[in-house]
Amino acid sequence: MFPDGAVQQYAANLIAENIYSQVDTDGHRYQLMDCIADHRTDGRALKGEDGWTISKNGKKTRKMTTLGWYFLIKWKDSTESWVPLKELKESHPIEVAEYAEANNLMSEPAIIWWAPFTLKKRNKVIAAVNSRSKKRSHKYGVEVPRSVREAYELDKINGNTLWRDAIAKEMKNVMIAFEILEEGKQVAPDRKFIECFMIFDVKMCMTRKARFCANGAKTPELSTSVYSGVVSRETVRIAFTYAALNGLDIMAADIQIAYLQAPISEKYWTICGPEFGTEYAGKKALIVR
């Protein structure tokens, strides 16, 4: 109900779209940036040699200023606004630096004194994360194996078959993707070898999970797109809000091995490991799905 007594019904999506644009107790409004669309300068922006300060002994140092620069920001709530570089550099330094590099602004006095170092630092962080080896031995107090043989050994030690059952369940689902070759049969020369392995995890309910994977990092990069999108958190929030406003029940479902329903165009083969069982272990297998 509005102050004048009028009653109107808001659409659920309008309410959901503003979830991320709330005002806190101090009156500050928070928005998520979508992208940087444009830039402009006013008469105060420095140019060329104006970006240097020369000391009495002739030493040149750069002026650390962002004066006169503005960027057009598109926000997640579909609004746009011009934001001073002074503010944007503090809140979204990487996005601004990437935009400056893509639009040949790196030599500008307001950009050059900080953006190159921001991108260099970003690259160092990414390289450090990519090179870091993830070594986790336990989860929820349960020892997690690093190989199929280790999983079988843990079952012997623990006196159960939890890891063996998880492996068997996964292999039952993925066997449709392989064509096992008979002993002595050669693989066609146009097929490429790809390493496969099993990874393990423990769910919050203590269920053991095994997943058979192919090492795509060792295969040539494909020229076609292999991106597989997932639903965004914003979409889920909108759905929950819509359900709450309309009194709807929320249900979740999962489709097992949905990605194994179609033949693949690439030609790969692998060698069966112990997870394939004693009947197939060591044999060559064509990947057909």
Task: Note down, in words, how this protein is organized.
- With 289 residues, this protein is of the alpha+beta class.
- It contains 8 helices and 13 strands.
- It has helices at 12-17, 85-91, 93-102, 109-112, 115-131, 148-158, 162-174, 233-246, and strands at residues 33-41, 52-54, 60-62, 69-75, 80-84, 138-139, 142-143, 178-180, 192-193, 196-202, 208-214, 268-271, 284-287.
- A 4-stranded mixed beta sheet has the order 8-13-12-9, with no helix packed on it. It has a 3-stranded antiparallel beta sheet with strand order 1-4-5. A two-stranded antiparallel ribbon has the order 2-3.
- A hairpin with a 2-residue loop joins strand 6 and strand 7.
- Helix 2 crosses helix 3.
- The longest helix has 17 residues, at 115-131.
- Mean pLDDT is 80; it is low at 4-12.
What overall geometry do the principal axes of the alpha carbons give?
elongated
SS elements, strand count: 13
β-strand percent reads 15-25%
Order of strands, main sheet, comes to: 8-13-12-9
The major sheet is characterized as: 4 strands, mixed
Determine Rg (CA atoms, Å). Answer: 28 Å
User: Pairing-aware structural class of the strands and helices?
Assistant: alpha+beta
SSE ordering: HEEEEEHHHHEEHHEEEEHEE
Helix content: 25-40%
* Mean of residue pLDDT values: 80
